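new request in #modeling-help
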Amino acid sequence: MIVSLALMALTLAVAVYLGIRARGRRAMSLERWAVGDRSLGGVFVFLLMAGEIYTTTTFLGISGFVYANGGAAYYILAYVTLAYVISYWLLPALWRYAKEHSLVSQADFFINKYDSRRLGVVVTVIGVAGMVPFLVLQLKGLGIIVAEASYGAVSSSAAIVIGGVLLTGYVTLSGLFAAAWTSVVKDILIVVVVGFLGIYLPLRYFGSVGDLFAAVEAARPRFATLHTDDLGVPWYISTVVISTLGFYMWPHLFAATFSAREESTFKKNAIVFPGRS
Amino acid sequence: MWLRFILAAVPSVLILGVVPWANRVEPYVLGLPFLLFWLSLSIVVTSVCMAAVYRLDPANRQEADR
């Protein structure tokens, strides 16, 4: 318990330190706060976007979904990959327009492009409305993870308050740079942990990845496919299509695009990103 | 000229179009149930397609010349 608490405290401390340090010494402006002065290089944009795509849900929600529904969870791999294909054409165009007009948010884009303040308001309201359940989900997940990992020493509510306050604090101070820097830590941890679990668990408990899936098949035939009527092939196709098309509607992903230094970044990321998922 | 748009459509065909037929456990490939193997392969192919699209895209060639 002490070890897991210490590890969590250390991770939190590093994230907060990076988040605050990310502010830098230069004076803060809205453009700097919201889109990092449009100065992020390829690696940073990659990490920032990865940080915004792979979340608590990746660990908690999806593993729960896999456990309950099996193969249906593949839809996530599918839509994320197809969204990257779209990103090759969508993001450079967005980026160019945003740069020309010095845009800093998703609503800005709609106000400018369609010359309508009202549309901007509608987009903002929908974005915020969509963001609330998203954030509730993330914070709830954070609470569960910390409460479990600390063996109940830190309650779920306490974890959510601590996490929420610190996060709001460093993001208020440093803006997008904070998100980009903490993404670095998060990304390294995610890759290490997922790599470890994905390789270690099957080897330790089943002998090999193949044996793991054979054991699943023996226990629940067809579980690793789209095997139920509710979550079958028609569900898969329609869900993947709608999730792919909606992917860059998220306000944070849409506007994170603006932070890149050059548009070729997105084209290159479209090549690298699918392999990552 | 149209090649890169055809290449860009390949991932959708693999990930959406073929899945009704790939939705099965057997045969296992590399220890993975067939559907998971199929999607993993599709993801790799997507990367390859996008790399090819990148090379074919005239917009990127101009950038390299500048």
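bot summary: The longest helix of chain A spans residues 117-149.
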